Amino acid sequence: MKKTFFITATALLLALALQAQELKCNVTVNSSKIQGTNRQIFETLQKSLNELMNNHKFTDMTFSQNEKIECTFGIIVNHYQDNLFSCEMQIQARRPVWGSSYSTTLLNLRDPAVNFTYFEYDPIIINSNSYDNNLAAIMAYYACIIIGYDLDSFQKLGGNASFAIAEQIVNMSQNRSGSEGDGWRAFDKNGKRYELINNLVDERFKRFREYCYNYHRLGLDNMTSNTANARAKIAEGLPVLKEINRLQPQAQAIVSFIDAKSDEYINIFAKHGTEKEKETVAQILSDINPSATNQYNQIKQ
User: Fold this and answer.
1) Which of 32, 59, 105, 294 is positioned for an S-S bond with 260, CB 3.0–4.6 A?
2) Model confidence pLDDT, tens digit, residues 185-199
3) Which three-class secondary structure string do you get for 134-180?
4) Residue 28 pairs with which residues in a beta bridge?
């Protein structure tokens, strides 16, 4: 009887622990550019990162199994020598759309400055008091960004607490030495981590984050029940993106949102939009991202 109780209690604790995690994550490490070295270290790194992202609890919130946020991290190793890695990373996150089998892309980011030291079999541990390990800090930062975006899509400004943690990580990483400092500082040419969180906590971007809620919760989630109204909600908020882009051209938050949503805008309005909606949406998207004007013109065809 005691043995049965122990097994049941252990299973219960494991279930509770699993419910605490926020992410359902897949990390891949592509080392095809690296020749003449032990391949095992890249496999070990990939395994360790998957364990970190799927087992660590990044916030104080509890997510049930079906609430976990699906995300992928694609790491391309550009250079490796003496346990020093120079990489780029593609980060994507998705969210299911209510009443459908469709998942929408929440985030689509490329980070070109992922530099870190890693010794094979060394544990990757997140120390929230210092974030002294740069790789752990980068992964924790993006985890909090993903969680914040997801929460913003379900509740207006719901991601505040998660974004605050991401901001704390950036602040603690400002003084990293050498190439590990890349991406964390304000005026780095590749300072995307700094710029993105700076946008998300900026009062001027509050309306952008509110639009993210309107787009997902009042727009996409209602698309099957009231298509015209849902489409109108998505269209009527677009001038907010244009205005913020005017105040801060090519802001990372706006650029990444458009990258994630361009195809979705085209699919929504090219098929079902009114003539006025098509004209307005195509024009605003072209104003924000002129290089993709030909792509957005598909909306009007």
Assistant:
1) 105
2) 988 888 899 999 999
3) HHHHHHHHHHHHHHHHHHHHHCCCCCHHHHHHHHHHHHHCCCCCHHH
4) 74
The band of 63, judged by pLDDT with boundaries at 50, 70 and 90, is confident
What pLDDT is recorded for position 5? 36
Residue 92 phi, psi dihedral angles, 5° rounding: -135, 145
Name the amino acid, one letter, at 58. Answer: F
CA distances from 282 to 55, 215, 228, 285 (A): 42, 16, 18, 5
pLDDT digits (tens, 9 = 90+) for 104-160: 999 999 999 999 999 999 999 998 888 999 999 999 999 999 999 999 999 999 999
Q: What is the DSSP string of the chain?
A: -HHHHHHHHHHHHHHHHHHH--EEEEEEEE-TT--SS-THHHHHHHHHHHHHHHH---SS----GGGPEEEEEEEEEEEEETTEEEEEEEEEEEEEPTTSS-EEEEEEEEEEEEEEE--TT------TTT--SHHHHHHHHHHHHHHHHHHHHHSTTTTHHHHHHHHHHHHHTTT--GGGGTTTSTT-TT-HHHHHHHHHTSGGGHHHHHHHHIIIIIIGGGTTT-HHHHHHHHHHTHHHHHHHHHHSTT-HHHHHHHHHHHHHHHHHHHHH--HHHHHHHHHHHHHH-GGGHHHHGGGG-
Distance of alpha carbon 199 from alpha carbon 168, whole angstroms: 14
Task: Kindly report the average pLDDT of the chain as a whole number.
Answer: 91
In whole angstroms, what is the distance from residue 282 CA to residue 285 CA? 5
pTM for this model (two decimals) = 0.91
- 77 forms beta bridges with 87
Q: How far is CA 128 from each of CA 25, 95, 179, rounded to the nearest angstrom?
A: 20, 27, 22
Q: Which of 87, 83, 82, 89 is nearest to 53 (CA)?
A: 89
